[in-house]
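Example record

One chain of 104 residues, shown exactly as stored in the release files.
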Amino acid sequence: MMSEQEEKQNDARVDAERDSRSTAMSMTEPAVENASATVIARKSPSGSDETVAEDPQPTYVPAALAMGIMMLLWGILTNWIMSAAGALVMVWAVTGWVREMHEP
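Predicted structure tokens for this chain:
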């Protein structure tokens, strides 16, 4: 007969096997210290030759593209002038987005 603790461990192992994405790990004090040291090392690379990628700048172009698509589709239901305006906004937004991607 299994004790309660053995049953809990067995249940945890079975659950971990079912969900292959999760890993059962005990969080002991050395494990926590090692994890925090790893995070600190990743945040501040000291004296390394690694290149760090910069975050992209915020842009309004995706919203303008969405507005152009909306205007184009709304124009199909109402008036061709709205569709033409939507197409122009879409072309302007795509052109601006491509230019932003190719800036140095």
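Notes: The helical segments are 4-18, 29-43, 61-77, 80-101.
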